[in-house]
Amino acid sequence: TSGVLVQPQQPGAECPEDSGDYCGLQETNSPFVFLSVALKFTDKHEWVQVEGGVGIVGISNYAQEALGDVVYCGLPEVGQRLEQMDEFGALESVKAASELYSPLTGEVTEINTELAENPGLVNKDCYAKGWIIKMTIEKPEELDGLMDQAAYDKFVTSLE
Amino acid sequence: MMWARLTVGAGASGLGLRAAGDGLLRFVGAGCAGRRQQQSRAASTETALKKTPLFDFHRGQEGKMVEFAGWSMPVQYKDSHIASHMHTREHCSIFDVSHMLQTNVHGKDRVKFMESLVVADIAELKDNQGTLTLFTNEKGGIIDDLIVTKTDQGYLYVVSNAGCADKDSVHMKARLAEFKYAGFDVDLEFLDCALIAVQGPTMSQVLQVGLKEDLSKLTFMTSALATVFGVPNCRLTRCGYTGEDGVEISVPESRVVELTETLLTNSEVKLAGLGARDSLRLEAGLCLYGNDIDETTTPVEATLVWTIGKRRRQAKDFPGADIIIPQIKAKTARKRVGLVSTGPPVRQHTPILSPDGKVIGEVTSGCPSPCLKKNIAMGYVDAAFAKNGTAIQVEVRKKAVPATVSKMPFVPTKYYTG
């Protein structure tokens, strides 16, 4: 076959439980490939998904597993402008704190306010309900520099 | 994201899992994020790490192994940190603490010997009673915290921290040489048996099944020799580091896996690692040597005056007594306190500020409390701010966050007193 056929994953839709790092992609019989909704990954384990010209950002399954139960999310303000790789927040578990780095250059348009009451969403549903921020995409070419699913999976394997 | 700050307080040995500037989480063998070169550096040190008799067993149980004080130890198993922590508070957990130093002190003059090193009244202990005490130095600082038990078997049984094992054994051997030279009868025996802690409200119901003796007679801080689930020559001490009712069992090396497996056949019991151990002890208000107390903190600053025996305060006959005893009356400039906050978690080295923003101290350990769902911490503050209920601030990521000085334990302890 010519590759993985995808259907668009709607933000907020439930991830299949055993989806692991393939959450966000579903094999279908459709001949259409909607590349704009494929996840791109940074080597710091954030993912970004483009939806209607906006970048949705979260952390990967590998990252949430290593971090442990998230108990606190430190998030930026809406309107904050971020350069690629700028620190924009932090996730805290009982034992560890991890900074979050912006995968792209743009402006924060929305933060996931659900995470204040329910920080565990980052663990339970890291690719959908556990999204962290949404941002504008000032430099779409930055997406080309990020890893696709296959490259990220390879990267993760190289770490283990 | 970068694994910038894993805070398994590993203390003065400098082996805290705080990452280097490039953000590597030094989980040895746990397969966490990080650059390849650092990963392989971690892998090469893994071969040099010491292993307890339960090492292979931990790996078989999917333990995530990390370096701690030169040992390869499990930080957690399959269950999440919070699940493991709560299981200990509601049921019963087993912790491998075989990395700690266990010593028997023999000889007619063993009490005099031990008292020359620690602040406790050892002579007044009843047979088989133990006490938490401190090794102090000539400057009044704390070399280590430890438990000394006066057994009825002709020796003192001493358990001290893994991170201080080299330092403590050198310290004890030096004093031994002095005592022997002076003609006293003392000998040291460093034990090579395993040590497991069984902690939680259902510990006694789990353990009683495997004991002939009545566990209800073994009260907090007392010790006994016993055969446990068919394993002879175990020493059971009713103590622990979680705030729960529990025991530490010193087990012959060759039988510890068998005993641990037997305990795990009871569905009440799960394995727990160093992660849960740290959040449990902090909730219980117990110090971690290297973080909350060290050679630069006196027992008075550390609010540990209660460890100094009544007779010893009069006699002033322990190392650093001429510095420590006057501090009891005169008070110290800083004091160790508990603090509680909400918002971003508070960790070691977090600055503590007065309400008007002046630096008044520093956090020595902290974590989100799984039980309280708030942030708890210990730190030293200027004595003027040390009263319970005092409003203070902590500085997290350059922002001042309100906090309150709190009594400890943060979570009520449940020691079994009979």
Automatic annotation (TrEMBL), chain A:
<keyword id="KW-0450">Lipoyl</keyword>
<feature type="modified residue" description="N6-lipoyllysine">
    <location>
        <position position="95"/>
    </location>
</feature>
<dbReference type="InterPro" id="IPR033753">
    <property type="entry name" value="GCV_H/Fam206"/>
</dbReference>
<dbReference type="InterPro" id="IPR000089">
    <property type="entry name" value="Biotin_lipoyl"/>
</dbReference>
<keyword id="KW-0809">Transit peptide</keyword>
<dbReference type="Pfam" id="PF01597">
    <property type="entry name" value="GCV_H"/>
</dbReference>
<dbReference type="GO" id="GO:0019464">
    <property type="term" value="P:glycine decarboxylation via glycine cleavage system"/>
</dbReference>
<comment type="similarity">
    <text>Belongs to the GcvH family.</text>
</comment>
<comment type="function">
    <text>The H protein shuttles the methylamine group of glycine from the P protein to the T protein.</text>
</comment>
<dbReference type="InterPro" id="IPR003016">
    <property type="entry name" value="2-oxoA_DH_lipoyl-BS"/>
</dbReference>
<dbReference type="GO" id="GO:0005960">
    <property type="term" value="C:glycine cleavage complex"/>
</dbReference>
<comment type="function">
    <text>The glycine cleavage system catalyzes the degradation of glycine. The H protein (GCSH) shuttles the methylamine group of glycine from the P protein (GLDC) to the T protein (GCST). Has a pivotal role in the lipoylation of enzymes involved in cellular energetics such as the mitochondrial dihydrolipoyllysine-residue acetyltransferase component of pyruvate dehydrogenase complex (DLAT), and the mitochondrial dihydrolipoyllysine-residue succinyltransferase component of 2-oxoglutarate dehydrogenase complex (DLST).</text>
</comment>
<protein>
    <recommendedName>
        <fullName>Glycine cleavage system H protein</fullName>
    </recommendedName>
</protein>
<dbReference type="InterPro" id="IPR017453">
    <property type="entry name" value="GCV_H_sub"/>
</dbReference>
<dbReference type="GO" id="GO:0009249">
    <property type="term" value="P:protein lipoylation"/>
</dbReference>
<keyword id="KW-0496">Mitochondrion</keyword>
<dbReference type="InterPro" id="IPR002930">
    <property type="entry name" value="GCV_H"/>
</dbReference>
<dbReference type="InterPro" id="IPR011053">
    <property type="entry name" value="Single_hybrid_motif"/>
</dbReference>
<feature type="domain" description="Lipoyl-binding">
    <location>
        <begin position="54"/>
        <end position="136"/>
    </location>
</feature>
<dbReference type="GO" id="GO:0005739">
    <property type="term" value="C:mitochondrion"/>
</dbReference>
<comment type="subunit">
    <text>The glycine cleavage system is composed of four proteins: P, T, L and H.</text>
</comment>
TrEMBL record, chain B:
<dbReference type="InterPro" id="IPR006223">
    <property type="entry name" value="GcvT"/>
</dbReference>
<comment type="function">
    <text>The glycine cleavage system catalyzes the degradation of glycine.</text>
</comment>
<keyword id="KW-0809">Transit peptide</keyword>
<keyword id="KW-0032">Aminotransferase</keyword>
<dbReference type="InterPro" id="IPR029043">
    <property type="entry name" value="GcvT/YgfZ_C"/>
</dbReference>
<keyword id="KW-0496">Mitochondrion</keyword>
<dbReference type="Pfam" id="PF01571">
    <property type="entry name" value="GCV_T"/>
</dbReference>
<dbReference type="GO" id="GO:0008483">
    <property type="term" value="F:transaminase activity"/>
</dbReference>
<dbReference type="InterPro" id="IPR027266">
    <property type="entry name" value="TrmE/GcvT-like"/>
</dbReference>
<dbReference type="GO" id="GO:0006546">
    <property type="term" value="P:glycine catabolic process"/>
</dbReference>
<protein>
    <recommendedName>
        <fullName>Aminomethyltransferase</fullName>
        <ecNumber>2.1.2.10</ecNumber>
    </recommendedName>
</protein>
<dbReference type="Pfam" id="PF08669">
    <property type="entry name" value="GCV_T_C"/>
</dbReference>
<dbReference type="InterPro" id="IPR013977">
    <property type="entry name" value="GcvT_C"/>
</dbReference>
<dbReference type="InterPro" id="IPR006222">
    <property type="entry name" value="GCVT_N"/>
</dbReference>
<dbReference type="InterPro" id="IPR028896">
    <property type="entry name" value="GcvT/YgfZ/DmdA"/>
</dbReference>
<dbReference type="GO" id="GO:0005739">
    <property type="term" value="C:mitochondrion"/>
</dbReference>
<dbReference type="GO" id="GO:0004047">
    <property type="term" value="F:aminomethyltransferase activity"/>
</dbReference>
<feature type="binding site">
    <location>
        <position position="248"/>
    </location>
    <ligand>
        <name>substrate</name>
    </ligand>
</feature>
<comment type="subunit">
    <text>The glycine cleavage system is composed of four proteins: P, T, L and H.</text>
</comment>
<comment type="similarity">
    <text>Belongs to the GcvT family.</text>
</comment>
<dbReference type="GO" id="GO:0005960">
    <property type="term" value="C:glycine cleavage complex"/>
</dbReference>
<feature type="domain" description="GCVT N-terminal">
    <location>
        <begin position="54"/>
        <end position="310"/>
    </location>
</feature>
